[in-house]
Each structure stands twice: as structure tokens, then as C-alpha cells.
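Checked the freezer inventory, then went back to the computational side. Two predictions to log before the end of the day. The first one is the construct we discussed on Monday; recording sequence and C-alpha cells without edits.
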Amino acid sequence: MPTQPYKNAAGKRIPGVTTILNRWKESGGLIYWAWDQGRNGLDFRETTNAAADAGTCAHAMIEQDWHGKPFDRSAYKPKVLAKADHAFLAYLKWKSQSGCSITQAELSLVSERYQFGGTMDAVIVDGELCLGDYKTSGGVYPDMLLQVAGGYALLWQEHFPDQTLHGIHILRFSKPHQEDDPISFHHHYWSAEIFKICQEQFIRLREAFDADKRIAKLI
């Protein structure tokens, strides 16, 4: 999903959820992975580009499915499509078995209370109202929970206070380390108890984001 500028009611530009979280994102795992690639005689830039293709392709497939639009296969090589198809079929199986449906996709909102914006991947109905997000990643990390159950949930609750959220779904496609690694699909669910924990931390990080910018100007 492309980054977009968010503006408050006064027309002032404000940060997005991912911009705030990226300022505090822990990068140790990424640094180790790049080091490990070099240790094995690989250029992490080339490995990342090659390995990301199938994950990116599967990511695009699910995005088009959520929008109810056909997926353009012409932009990808047959080998990439074959790998992505396996992961996408696993997603379709989960979707069919879970009975989940998408009510809104790529919903952009702005918080006047906390002065930030965000675009959530989807609002999911699984018998109850939940937020949904899909990732291409080697695992689930704290910033993902802070993004969905923190920032996005705050946005939803501010705009739709009468529509209670009951949890979050994160759909994850694996991020392979080598070009010929298979792509896997994983579904993760957290109940409503996650909201209070993540929202309190996100609000702290939102406040710290402004304080950090102020301190930077003092240098």
C-alpha cells in the first residue's frame, strides 16, 4: 500500500500510523539477516529483490481479491506466479472455511484527537466486526500489533464509536530468504483484549514522535 500524506481538519499535514511506528521500529532482526546473507556470500540487496517477488505477488493477489477485482498476472514471471498461487490458494481455503467477508478495504481515516492518519487494509466480518491486515514478512512483530490494534483501532473507534470491534486478523505471507524458498500463508487472530494494550502504547509513541522531532530541532 503506497504511503500517502494525511491532513487534519485545518489542512495541516500530520504523520501516518506507519511513519510513527517506523521511528521506533526495532531493526535488529533485519540487520542480522543482512549480516547472515553476507556471511554466506550473498548480496542481501539481490536476495531481497528476488525473494520478495513471490511474496509481493501473493500480497497483490489477496489485495485484488479483497477489492473484488481480477488479478493482472502479466506483470510476473511464471515461476513467481506458481509459488504465489500456492500461498493464495491457502488463503482462499482459509477464507472459505472461516466464512469471513470484507466490508471495507483500504479505508483512510484521520484522528483529530491524536493528530495522525492511517489507511487500514480491511474491515472483516467473521460473525463479529474485526480489523484485518495482510503482511509479507518472516514473522509477526510487535509493530504489526501496534499498527492494527493500536493506531487503526483508535481511528476506527473515533469515527465509528457505535460499531464495536471484537478483534483483529493478520494474514501473513512468508518472506523467503532464498529465491527458491516456498511461500507459506499464516492466519493470526487476537481478541478484543489486545486493543487496550496496543492503544495505550501507540498513544505513548505518538507523543514521543512529536517530542523527538522537537528535540532534533534543538541540535
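The second is the one RB wanted added to the comparison set:
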Amino acid sequence: MRGLTRPLVAAEAKSISYALFAAEALGDYFTTASIVPSSRHLARAMLEPLPLANARVVVELGPGTGAITRALLEFLPRRARLLALELNPRFCHYLEGRLADPRLLVINASAETVGAYLDQLGCERLDAVVSSLGLSFMSDLQRTTILRELLPYFDEKSMFTQYHYLGARLGNVFSPGWEPGRSSVAGLLRQHFRSIRTRTVWRNFPPAVVFACKK
């Protein structure tokens, strides 16, 4: 029976995570930008390009119920710091209760305010940023503000990863901030990063493209 304990606990935690995520998505889909948490395949694709082995400070934007957060904590050094900015207070409460790790700082705030929190911590540079934000549902002003908040902390070694669901463009017209002619996620990233590599993750629901970007 002892050998069954860990799988059963993990399965229960996953079930709770999915139920909470689905409930919040039904209430405000344009904030969660998905109906289910990221799969382990998507999490792996988001983390593989990042320089995590010797990372000091990493930011995660929109961690949700922590599918990618858990993977980050597995790879980050003991002395690293992970700042997770999440707008949904129920997700923040869930993360704080489920992921008791001294490296993790969960902040209930909008991604547009990330620079202020980095300054409070005395951070001068970021090793990596992992974003699960629904950029396709945001206005150009919101998206540009977020990137301009982050880029002063980037150098030539810093990495930024962002995923975008395939087929999400059709849903853009129903988002509150949508405007005709608004730039695509790829177009937005090209405006701010000199190097962008893409990878399609088919083993995710829905399938997604991962953008790995360098300043």
C-alpha cells in the first residue's frame, strides 16, 4: 500500500488542479486563456531552451495552478528565486497551499507591474521568463507594456518563452481588447527580440507553438 500512496496523492492533486482551472475558465476565459492546465509535454518544451542550471532569478507570468511552476522548481538551483505573477487570487491561494518552496514567491498582481516587484527585490537581471499569458486576448498596449517592463532586465543570455495555441486566432475577435489589424503574437515578439525559435507541441490540448526568444 505504501507504494501506491504517492501516485494516488499525485492523481488527486491533478484532479483538483483541473477542476479549479476549469471552474475559473468558465468564469473568465479571457484571463485564463485556456480550459485546462498545460500538459507535461508543453511544460517540457517551455523549459528546455532556458538556462536554468545556474539561474539566479526567474519570472513566471500566469502560472495558473502550477503545471509549469512545478517543473521549474525541479530544475532550478537551491539558491534561485522564482517570482510567479498571477492575477487570479484563487490560483494564488492554490499555489501557496500546494507548493511550499522557499524559492517561490507568488504575487497576486498583473504582469504589467512586474518591473516594480523586481526593483523591490533589488534584481538587476533575469535569467529567464516563462509566460503562459493569453497574449492573443490582450490589447497591444498591455502586451507591449509587459515586454517593456521585462526587457531592461535582459542581457544576451536571458531567455523568454511563450506559448500560443494553434487556431487561437479565430477566438481573438471575441476578446474584450481585440482590435482589427492587431499584430499577431509572432509579430509582437519579432518587434522586441532579435532571435526567435519555434517548436510545435502536438501532444497538448489544444496543440501549441512555443516561442523561445532572446533579446
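For RB: The longest strand covers residues 159-165. Confidence is low (pLDDT under 50) at residues 1-12, 28-33, 170-182. Let me know if you want it refolded.
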